[in-house]
Amino acid sequence: MFNLVLFGPPGSGKGTQSMHIANTYHLQHVSTGDLLRSEVEGQTPLGVEAKKYMDQGLLVPDEVVIGMISSKIDESPEARGFIFDGFPRTKAQAEALDKLLEFKNTKIDLVLALDVPEAELITRLIGRGVNSGRSDDNQEVIVKRIKEYHSKTEPVANHYDAQDKLERVKGDHTIDETFKLLARHIDRYLLPV
Ligand code: AP5
Ligand code: MG
User: Fold this and answer.
1) Is 89 labeled as catalytic in the residue annotation?
2) Within the chain, which residues score under 50 in pLDDT?
3) CATH code for the domain in which residue 30 is found
4) I need a surface site. Which of 12, 94, 145, 192 has the fewest CB within 10 A?
5) Position 85 in a domain
6) What's the confidence (pLDDT) of residue 13?
7) Of 76, 72, 94, 115, which Cα lies nearest the Cα of 159?
8) Is residue 193 part of a domain?
9) 89, 124, 139, best to mutate for ligand 1 pocket (most atoms within 8 Å of CB)
10) Is 19 inside a domain boundary?
11) Count of domains for the chain
């Protein structure tokens, strides 16, 4: 099994690149943002609670997302591996994921962190907001999401750096060029299918 974390600020291309990586290497894509948005759309109790945080650009409480990830992993026992997009986002989530995977006799193999200048992040997200229908793609909430990233999520990189699993990749090239840079790292672990 091969497990990858795609790490980076809002708008760095985690969702876009995860889709390509999942298709190319046959990995199961797990995006906590997508999972939460589908709970919001279904107006489930979890979704109603999560929406309060998401609309403000704040992280949803750890226990909510950790529980979601655990059941998502259990749904795909035959997976070649997982690509985690937008998770873990706090130190507590990273520690919970390590424990969860250890319990399943596996681990995170590689963390690829996308590096994109802040001005480019804002341009991309405002651009996406025109058609995305995402309630958090407006200037005010985008700025809050980036702030939340710096204070709570960025330190998670150290957690993986200390385990020698972190690789930084420049994410301000075209989508195809960025994919090639990411693939170069993944190819050291497994081949495309
Ligand atoms: P989430 O859905 O994870 O959003 P995010 O981290 O803010 O990131 P985005 O999805 O906006 O960006 P992305 O990096 O995926 O980039 P994308 O590929 O879309 O989280 C949303 C909310 O849910 C959070 O604020 C929080 O409330 C909650 N949440 C989620 N996970 C949580 C967790 N683990 N714990 C607690 N709360 C959690 O690209 C962005 C745009 O740029 C697109 O339009 C794309 O087409 C374009 N683009 C991509 N690559 C390029 C490129 N190379 N060149 C030009 N344009 C590009
Ligand atoms: Mg995303």
Assistant:
1) yes
2) none
3) 3.40.50.300
4) 192
5) yes
6) 98
7) 94
8) no
9) 124
10) yes
11) 1
